[in-house]
Write a structure and sequence with these properties.
Oligomer: single chain
Strand content: 5-15%
Helix content: 25-40%
Order of helices and strands: HHEHE
Number of domains: 1
Radius of gyration: 14 Å
Distance between the termini: 46 Å
Largest sheet: 2 strands, parallel
Mean pLDDT: 86
Shape: elongated
Length: about 80
Amino acid sequence: MAKRVLRTKLCDMLGIEYPIVSAGMGPTLIGETTGAPVELVVAVSEAGGMGVLGGSGLSVEGLRDAIREIKSQTNKPYGVDLLLP
């Protein structure tokens, strides 16, 4: 097994292998209505980082569906980024 080169307290706190946290990207200025797709969240988490789902622009049902989809594809840690008023 390869030796881990980079390990920080953040890794221990979040239960991840590498101190990499993806941005929970929301809608963009070019007209996209959703942020980082589920596939990106899963890929980052599976690679040992913390994948983050951008919840901005998603309906409650859309957010629920996205979280369920992530949970069905990985058992690794992930996060959800929400903008609250």
